[in-house]
Amino acid sequence: MNHWVYILKSKRSDNWSYVGSTSNLGQRLKDHNSGKTRSTKAYKPLFLLYQEQHKTREEAYKQELYLKSSNGRREKTKIIKAFYSEIARLEST
C-alpha cells in the first residue's frame, strides 16, 4: 500500500498551509474539506498543492515530520513558491 505526504493550502488564507500524511489521499482531502479535521476546519475550502508518494507509512510520517521542522519549513516554502510560479507561468501563456 502506498502512503502520501501532502501539503494543503486554503483558498481563503494566503499565509496558511497544512502538512499531513495518509494512505488514502482522496478520502483525507474530503475529510479536511468537510470539516471533520479540527485543525483545518477554519481554513476550508482547501486544495491539494503538493503530494509525495512513499512505500511505507513510516517513510511518509518521517517526511511529514521533516516538513514540519525548521529546515523542512524552508523546503515547504520552496515547494509552495514553485507551485505559484508555475501557475503564474501558465497564466501568462
Explain what you see.
The structure is a single chain. By secondary structure, the chain is α+β, with helices and mostly antiparallel strands. The protein has a single domain, classed as 3-Layer(aba) Sandwich (GIY-YIG endonuclease). It is built from three helices and three strands. Strands 2-1-3 form a three-stranded antiparallel sheet, with helices on both faces. Helix 2 (57-68) packs across helix 3 (70-91). It starts with a strand and ends with a helix.
Low-confidence stretches are none
Structural class determined from secondary elements: alpha+beta
Sum up the overall morphology in one term.
Answer: globular
Write down the domain tally.
1
Name the beta content range. Answer: 15-25%
**If strands are numbered along the chain, what order do they take across the biggest sheet?**
2-1-3
CATH architecture: 3-Layer(aba) Sandwich
State the assembly state of the protein chains: single chain
Query: What is the CATH first-level class name?
Result: Alpha Beta
Q: Give the termini separation.
A: 39 Å
Q: And the CATH topology?
A: GIY-YIG endonuclease
> Biggest sheet, open or closed, and with what strands and sense?
3 strands, antiparallel
Arithmetic mean of pLDDT: 95
Features:
93 residues; alpha+beta; GIY-YIG endonuclease; three-stranded antiparallel β-sheet; 3 helices; 47% helix; 25% strand; globular
